[in-house]
UniProtKB/TrEMBL annotation:
It comes from Parabacteroides hominis. The keyword Oxidoreductase applies. The keyword Amino-acid biosynthesis applies. It holds the Pfam family Fer4_20. SUPFAM superfamilies: alpha-helical ferredoxin, Nucleotide-binding domain. The lineage of its organism: Bacteria, Pseudomonadati, Bacteroidota, Bacteroidia, Bacteroidales. This is Glutamate synthase subunit beta.
Length: 475
């Protein structure tokens, strides 16, 4: 803790977003960066608490106080070496992590101005790339081979960890390019895809083989992979979206959120989309059903297309603004979140259930919604929803369903390997090792936990890699 009084005298300073009028016409990253001097000043605010709650809150167990202190002292290289011990890809988490650590920072509790931990993390890793501290390493090989199925953050973290331990790693990915939802889910305005390309290039230089356009469980046999590799890590994500099976669901104009988001990312990659399949929101009234982050990403995308209007509705009540007594510090606060996409223009409404899609000649015209009320949860139960009978029609030419994901695809690989699933449909593993009992197969990420966060997927991939290493050593 280089400057013991900084937290008393220096305020939190975020780099902020590019101005709306400048960013709304492009898909480049919206977040800006501070200069190195301001960044070090921000790092000086860390109090190096006796109990670092930031460290407790981070699923990767990042050692934030250590690297804040090194950053404050201008020891960028040393700060990076501490950061890389626990985090494989700080360039991803530094951009798109919801910063669970900052919500648990003691300065969040005392003055609502936590240390800018996430932005500092991004600055450290970007300096490391810029200054050339990140170079391909060539591990000593141990003649064992591991297959990773799925190249999202869980699969990438597992592959990176195993490669560094000397295993020959092959990553199988069904899509055209590696990255999972980082690549074909999260919009470019949150995470530029050059950032993923840079990391994949490095991983390839370090010896990891990526086999894209390879769907395991149909094009390639999963059983064959399990028998020819010493171990397998299944990291196939949680891809089945929650549907809204109400009247009119089949009307032209009703889409899952990822149909829009993944298509947009493909277009930006230069991947050709058949003209008949292109979803464009220009001049359209857009309704997003689902008030979460995926919905917010649809809002930002629709506005960049030039939508006539964008409305986002949510069945649950509006969360409290600022502070929620139900989730006291150091817990992650369940409060109203206003994203960069919301700032760009969007009507947000809560307590609305969707009753039916209304169409004319098979084309969507609107959605009938009904206002609902929520009765407070009784001890041990969930809040109870009550319909009010008050209905209205929201006009819409396009609807995007952003109501979450339910579980991994149950056909294909899961069926071929006869993998057991839990009551929610996620792959069932030994919670201590992520191993599937009695096999050389391990699983990680959203496929095990259900849809979650990049930082949790990376932590899960690291855990599976450590368990695979132990398993193969014991063998
Ligand atoms: C629109 C959207 C925005 C999000 N934004 C954020 C955010 O800002 N911050 C955040 O922390 N989290 C965010 N998330 C959540 C985050 O992206 C996921 O939790 C995370 O990507 C899960 O990682 P994963 O590796 O488990 O799975 P995924 O990223 O889903 O990767 C799984 C990979 O496996 C591949 N695959 C599946 N089946 C097969 C098969 N049979 N053979 C070969 N390959 C296969 C898939 O093609 C995919 O590439 C967002 C999610 C969505 C949908
Ligand atoms: S990964 Fe997320 S929770 Fe962990 S230190 Fe970085 S921003 Fe904080």
């Amino acid at each position: 803790m280089g400057n013991p009084k900084a937290f008393l005298t220096i305020h939190r300073q975020e780099a902020g977003y590019r101005p709306v009028h400048e960013r709304i016409d492009d898909f480049s990253e919206v977040e800006q960066t501070l200069n190195s001097s301001d960044r070090r000043t921000q790092a000086s605010r860390c109090m190096d608490c006796g109990v670092p709650f930031c460290h407790w809150a981070c699923p990767l167990g990042n050692k934030q106080p250590e690297w804040q202190d090194l950053l404050y002292k201008g020891k960028w290289r040393e700060a990076f070496h501490v950061l890389e011990q626990t985090c494989d890809f700080p360039e991803f988490t530094g951009r798109i992590c919801p910063a669970l650590c900052e919500k648990s920072c003691v300065l969040k509790l005392s003055c609502d101005e936590p240390v800018t931990i996430r932005e500092n993390e991004a600055a450290i890793v970007e300096a490391a790339f810029r200054e050339g501290y990140i170079r391909p390493v060539q591990p000593v090989r141990n003649d064992k081979r591991v297959a990773v199925i799925g190249s999202g953050p869980a699969g990438l973290a597992a592959a990176n960890q195993l490669n560094r331990r000397g295993y020959e790693v092959t990553v199988f990915e069904k899509y055209e390019l590696p990255g999972g939802l980082l690549r074909f889910g999260i919009p470019n305005f949150k995470l530029g895809k050059n950032i993923i390309d840079r990391r994949i290039r490095l991983m390839e230089q370090e010896g990891i083989v990526f086999k894209v356009n390879t769907m395991v469980g149909s094009e390639v046999s999963a059983k064959e992979i399990a028998s020819t590799f010493d171990a397998v890590c299944v990291a196939i994500g949680s891809e089945v979206p929650r549907d809204l099976p109400i009247e009119g669901r089949n009307l032209k104009g009703v889409h899952f959120a990822l149909e829009l988001l993944s298509q947009q990312n493909r277009i930006l990659e230069g991947i050709a989309i058949p003209p008949k399949d292109i979803i464009n929101c220009k001049g359209k009234k857009v309704l997003v059903i689902g008030g979460g982050d995926t919905g917010s990403d649809c809002v930002g995308t629709a506005n960049r297309h030039g939508a006539a209007s964008v409305t986002q509705i949510e069945i649950m009540p509006q969360p409290p603004v600022g502070h929620n007594p139900a989730t006291p510090w150091p817990l992650y606060p369940q409060v109203l979140k206003t994203s960069s996409s919301h700032e760009e223009g969007c009507i947000r409404r809560w307590n609305l259930a969707s009753v039916r899609f209304i169409g004319d000649k098979n084309t969507l015209k609107g959605v009938e919604v009904e206002e609902v009320e929520w009765l407070p949860a009784k001890e041990g139960s969930r809040p109870e929803m009550r319909k009010t009978g008050r209905t209205e029609v929201i006009e819409a030419d396009l609807v995007f369903l952003a109501m979450g994901f339910i579980h991994p695809e149950q056909e294909g690989l899961v069926k071929e390997l006869s993998l057991a699933v839990d009551t929610r449909g996620n792959i069932a593993v030994d919670p201590a090792t992520n191993q599937i009992a009695g096999t050389n197969i391990f699983a990680s990420g959203d496929a095990v936990s259900g849809a979650s966060l990049v930082v949790r997927a990376m932590a899960s991939g690291r855990k599976a890699a450590a368990a695979i290493d132990q398993y193969l050593r014991d063998k």
